[in-house]
Write a structure and sequence with these properties.
This protein has 13 helices and eleven strands. The protein is α/β, with parallel strands linked by helices. The chain is globular, with a radius of gyration of 20 Å. The model has no long low-confidence stretch (mean pLDDT 93).
C-alpha cells in the first residue's frame, strides 16, 4: 500500500460508476453505494483486493435516522478487507470533498488505488425532515429567522435580474437547457424536455424562482476509482472497456462568508471565486481552456453567478451567453451536459462525484452523439456547499 511520490506522479480516474438518480429508490443507502462502487471497480478492471483506501461521502444519514459507520458497512459489503476507510461530510459539496480526499491520499503516497463513493437516500425521511435538515445548512442566526436556501436563491435571483437588466427568461433558459441535456441521460432523474414557457409558468417557490428553477430531492450514488501512475506509465489507460483514463490536473477548495447576510454583495460568492482561481493556477490553465463544465446549479441563478465568479464570463453577461446558446451542448462552453443538479438530480453526497463521472464519460468519448461534447480535452467541475459557504473545484484532462 502506497508508493514513493515523484514529480512524475499523476492521479487518474481509472473507472467510474453511477446509479440512476431517483425520487424514491427502493434500495438502501448501502446498496446504492455498493452498486455504484462495483460498477466503478469493473470499469477500472480493479479487483477489490487492490483497493488501499475507501472514502465515502454522505451528508444526511444521521439527520434522516439512518445508520452510522457508513464507510465500514460499505467496506464490508464490497469485501475491502484491510483497506483504510473513512466518511466525509461537507453538506452539498460532500461528493467533491470525498474525491479530493482520495486524490490527496494518492498524491501523498499513502495509497495506490482509492475508491471514492458518494451516496444519499433523501427519501429515507419525509419531506419535512429533509427540508429541516437542509435548512440547517445556513448560518444558525439565519436559520433562527426562518431564512432558507430557496429564500437566498430568490433574493439572489431578483438582485441579479434587476442589477443586470436581465429578463426573467434568462433563468428559465438555464432550466430548459439542462432539462434538454438530461433527456438522453439514462441516469438522470428528469428525462423530460421543457421549454422556457414551461419554466416561466411553473409554481412560484421563492419569487422570482419557480419550481423549474430549483433542483429536486434525490436518491442515488456515484463512484470513481483513482489510481497512481507515472507520466510514462502504460497503466494510464482505464479498464478494458474504457478509453484513456483522464488525469486529475488540479483540485482546490475554499470557504467564504458563512452568514449570507454578512456578505457585502449578495451576488459575490468568495468561495467560488477563490477556489476557481486556485484550481486554474494548479492546473496551469485559464477558463478559456475549458471545453466542458459541470456547474452547481442548485438554483438556476447559481449557474449564472458561478460562471461569472469563475471567470468564464464577465459579470452580468452569463445570462446573455445562455440566451445566445453559448452554454448549450453545441455552444462555445457546454455547461451541465448531463442535466446538472436541476435535471440529473441532487442527492447531496453523490452530486460532486456525479459531476466527475459525467466529465470522465465526456473526456473518454463514451457517450452517444446526442449528448457528447466532441473533442473535449479539458473539463471543469464545481460543487458548492450551502449557499457558497464552501466551494470545491476540479480540473480533469484527457
Amino acid at each position: 500500500m502506497g508508493s514513493t511520490v515523484t514529480d512524475a506522479t499523476e492521479v487518474r480516474v481509472s473507472g467510474v460508476g453511477m446509479t440512476p438518480f431517483e425520487s424514491d429508490s427502493e434500495r438502501s443507502l448501502t446498496d446504492l453505494a455498493a452498486t455504484a462502487a462495483e460498477e466503478a471497480l469493473a470499469d477500472a478492471a480493479v479487483d477489490p483486493a487492490e483497493v488501499d483506501a475507501l472514502h465515502f461521502g454522505n451528508a444526511l444519514a444521521e439527520a434522516l435516522d439512518e445508520s452510522a459507520g457508513l464507510a465500514n458497512a460499505l467496506a464490508a459489503a464490497l469485501g475491502l478487507d484491510g483497506a483504510s476507510a473513512d466518511r466525509i461530510e461537507n453538506t452539498s459539496a460532500t461528493g467533491a470533498s470525498a474525491f479530493h480526499r482520495g486524490v490527496d491520499r494518492i498524491k501523498k503516497g499513502d495509497a495506490d488505488v482509492a475508491l471514492v463513493v458518494g451516496a444519499e437516500k433523501m427519501s429515507a425521511g419525509d419531506t419535512r425532515d429533509v427540508t429541516e435538515a437542509i435548512s440547517r445548512l445556513v448560518h444558525r442566526r439565519e436559520y433562527a429567522q426562518g431564512v432558507t436556501l430557496p429564500s437566498f436563491g430568490g433574493l439572489a435571483a431578483g438582485t441579479y435580474l434587476d442589477r443586470h437588466d436581465a429578463p426573467r427568461e434568462a433563468l428559465a433558459a438555464v432550466a430548459a437547457k439542462n432539462h434538454a441535456n438530461a433527456v438522453d441521460n439514462p441516469v438522470a432523474q428528469f428525462r423530460k424536455s421543457i421549454d422556457v414557457e414551461d419554466a416561466l409558468d411553473s409554481p412560484v417557490v421563492a419569487a422570482p424562482l419557480r419550481l423549474y428553477d430549483c433542483c429536486p430531492m434525490s436518491d442515488g450514488a456515484a463512484a470513481v476509482v483513482l489510481t497512481r501512475t507515472d507520466e510514462d506509465d502504460s497503466a494510464a489507460d482505464g479498464g478494458a472497456e474504457a478509453g484513456p483514463a483522464p488525469r486529475v490536473a488540479g483540485t482546490a477548495s475554499a470557504t467564504g462568508t458563512h452568514a449570507v447576510a454578512e456578505r457585502p454583495d449578495p451576488l459575490s460568492i468568495d468561495s467560488v471565486r477563490t477556489a476557481g482561481e486556485r484550481v486554474f493556477d494548479r492546473a496551469g490553465i485559464a477558463p478559456d481552456d475549458v471545453d466542458v463544465a459541470c456547474i452547481h446549479d442548485a438554483f438556476t441563478v447559481l449557474e449564472l453567478i458561478e460562471l461569472e465568479e469563475l471567470g468564464f464570463y464577465e459579470r452580468g453577461t452569463a445570462w446573455e451567453a445562455t440566451l445566445d446558446g453559448d452554454t448549450a451542448l453545441d455552444g462555445d462552453l457546454p455547461v451541465n451536459p448531463g442535466g446538472g443538479l436541476k435535471a440529473r438530480g441532487h442527492p447531496l453526497g453523490a452530486t460532486g462525484l456525479s459531476q466527475i463521472v459525467e466529465l470522465v464519460w465526456q473526456l473518454r468519448g463514451d457517450l452517444p452523439g446526442s449528448r457528447r461534447v466532441d473533442g473535449a480535452e479539458t473539463a471543469f467541475a464545481i460543487n458548492v456547499a450551502g449557499f457558497g459557504n464552501n466551494s470545491v473545484c476540479t480540473v480533469l484532462r484527457a
